[in-house]
Amino acid sequence: MSTSNGQAGAESRLRTHPVVMVLYDGVQALDVTGPLDVLAAANEHGGRYRAFTASPGGKDVRTTSGLRLAADTALEGWSGRIGTLLVPGRPDWHVAVEDHGLIEQLTRLAHSALRVASVCAGAFPLAATGLLDGRRAATHWRLTEELAARYPSVHVDRDAIFIRDGRVITSAGVTAGIDLTLSLVEEDLGPEAARAAAKDLVVFMARPGGQSQFSVRLRARYCRSATVRTVLDAVTAAPHADHSLGALAARAGVSVRHLTRLIRQETGTTATRFVEQIRLEAAQGMLESGTDPLDMVARRSGFGSAETLRRAFQREFGITPGTYRARFHSTQRDCPRAPSDAVGAMRRPSGDTLPGDQVATAMPGDGPATGF
What we know:
By secondary structure, the protein is of the alpha/beta class. The protein contains 16 helices and 11 strands. 45% of the residues lie in helices and 10% in strands. Helix 11 (245-252) crosses helix 12, helix 13 (271-289) crosses helix 14 and helix 13 (271-289) packs across helix 16.
């Protein structure tokens, strides 16, 4: 942990930790409310966070959902100390980075803050300040290519849920701001407080996997080589087919050596790795939307056997396919319908656990439950 990180933890234990959440028109509401609710929950477990909202001119702003948010103060007028500066994102990030007044104030405040964090597309205005130059950074998986192209001095990590580089922390899309803020709470107050806040909010303290589960299919779109696009499109269209190097090369009409070099050049990974990621994504879709047994999911996604699928999931996401299905198959899994003739409080079935408890439930036939 760097000196500044240690200072952040020490300061928050000794006195109130001021947090400034930047507001501006067009931000996503959850980028703002998610982190603030984590801090509020942490305050119930020993935290001393005091959150302020600040906007250009101190004006109210409208979010992408139409929700109006009021600012406590004007960005231009803030002169107090800042423990954590939080920068939410606006999906049409071009508008934010071209707002010179906003970027000027972000630059001023970012340089004086103990630590700075961005959520989702908030990485763009933060990058516009120059603070991300030479640093690793994350953003929403749909925007990673745009961030890398607009700010080539930023080392964009296309898979991370959140990344810390020195005193700067950037996160992936929307709800990843909750993950990021829980990590700050853990740094400041310890894992017990962070775990308690996660339980209160009914969220995972640390979610499995990275953004690759959402973005791998997009890689074929950005390839300049028609040969590589043809090959990757074929893999995406039929994950279960024969995609050995020999078969891919024959399909492309080039040598294995030449195809290997082209794919590495275009995607930054190997053909074998790309095929496995596509197959993992296909398996995820089947687990999320269907009830087919694991051996059938494995065959249809190209893994061949349930054991091979299980090993790939454990290696990539740290959980088994059955555990993944239990978590992501349906948001209604733990929410029974109320009887039609009665209105009452929803109750979690007896014995069920909250995500913050860090216990995962395995599906039948998938071996023992796996924690994370």
